């Protein structure tokens, strides 16, 4: 298991390395000292797991995750226990409070190994990290029904949630798989797996009904492309 350590304190990174030395199945592939460095290292090294400090200069661990195109598994490490609830709301593997105890480290790694075993037989779903104010989520892309443009932001529809993320619809479209996500019009990208029904409308476009009964119009210009992809 390839791990990346992200913490602005050198002694904290050294302590993580000492604790992880007792776990030969964990390979430390790199270290990062702040959020920007963490994003660069994750994009370059593609670790399976990151140990992430919450408070760092230039941006928190949550801000760093929000800047990623795809989120790896995360174990948070911090001296401040008030972040625990927020960490678990985002579906982190675990939350280790400093000074970290060896037994807690072992428990966190067992949790990580168990999750990896459950997904070993299948392709692990790609996850997006979304931060809207004080609330955060890890969301599998396959669970997102709709992306909706809102100025420089994009509203994301999944489960009963509709948070905003600080990325434009055009930025998201560049990263999404066009076999699963379709640009229906200027304001919407739909997950094709969540399209429940399709009807032709009077303007020559299409009206899509999603799995939550929300309706989205495919513009007349994009309708032929949708028909070709959806094999209507």
Overview of the molecule:
With 232 residues, the protein is an alpha/beta fold. It has 2 domains: 2-124, Rossmann fold, CATH 3.40.50; 133-230, OB fold (Dihydrolipoamide Acetyltransferase, E2P) (Beta Barrel). The chain is 29% helix and 32% strand. It has a 5-stranded parallel sheet, with helices on both faces. Strands 10-9-8-12-11 form a 5-stranded antiparallel sheet, with no helix packed on it. A hairpin with a 4-residue loop joins strand 11 (181-183) and strand 12 (188-191). The longest helix has 18 residues, at 102-119. The chain is elongated, with a radius of gyration of 20 Å. The N and C termini lie far apart (44 Å).
Keywords:
2 domains, alpha/beta, 7 helices, 5-stranded parallel β-sheet, 32% strand, 232 residues, OB fold (Dihydrolipoamide Acetyltransferase, E2P), 15 strands, 29% helix, single chain, 5-stranded antiparallel β-sheet
Number of separate strands: 15
Residues in β-strands, percent: 25-35%
What is the overall shape? elongated
Determine and state the CATH class of the largest domain.
Answer: Alpha Beta
> What is the string of SSEs from the N terminus onward?
EHEHEHEHEHEEEEEHEEEEEH
CATH architecture of the largest domain: 3-Layer(aba) Sandwich
Q: Which range best describes the helical content: under 10%, 10-25%, 25-40%, 40-55%, 55-70% or over 70%?
A: 25-40%
What strand order characterises the main sheet? 2-1-3-4-5
């Amino acid at each position: 298991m390839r791990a990346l350590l992200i913490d602005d304190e050198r002694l904290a990174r050294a302590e993580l390395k000492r604790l992880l030395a007792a776990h030969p199945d964990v390979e430390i592939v790199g270290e990062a000292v702040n959020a920007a460095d963490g994003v660069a290292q994750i994009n370059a090294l593609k670790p399976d797991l990151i140990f992430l400090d919450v408070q760092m200069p230039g941006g928190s661990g949550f801000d760093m995750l929000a800047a990623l195109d795809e989120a790896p598994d995360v174990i948070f490490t911090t001296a401040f226990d008030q972040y625990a609830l927020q960490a678990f709301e985002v579906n982190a593997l675990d939350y280790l409070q400093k000074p970290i105890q060896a037994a807690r480290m072992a428990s966190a790694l067992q949790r990580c190994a168990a999750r990896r075993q459950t997904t070993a037989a299948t392709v692990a779903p790609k996850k997006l990290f979304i931060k809207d104010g004080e609330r955060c989520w890890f969301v599998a892309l396959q669970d997102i029904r709709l992306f909706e443009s809102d100025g420089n932001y994009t509203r994301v529809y999944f489960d009963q949630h509709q948070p905003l993320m600080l990325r434009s619809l055009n930025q998201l479209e560049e990263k999404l798989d066009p076999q699963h996500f379709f640009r229906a019009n200027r304001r919407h990208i739909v997950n094709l797996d969540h399209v429940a029904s399709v009807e032709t409308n009077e303007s020559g476009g299409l009206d899509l009904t999603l799995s939550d009964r929300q309706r989205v119009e495919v513009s007349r210009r994009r309708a032929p492309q949708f028909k070709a992809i959806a094999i209507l």
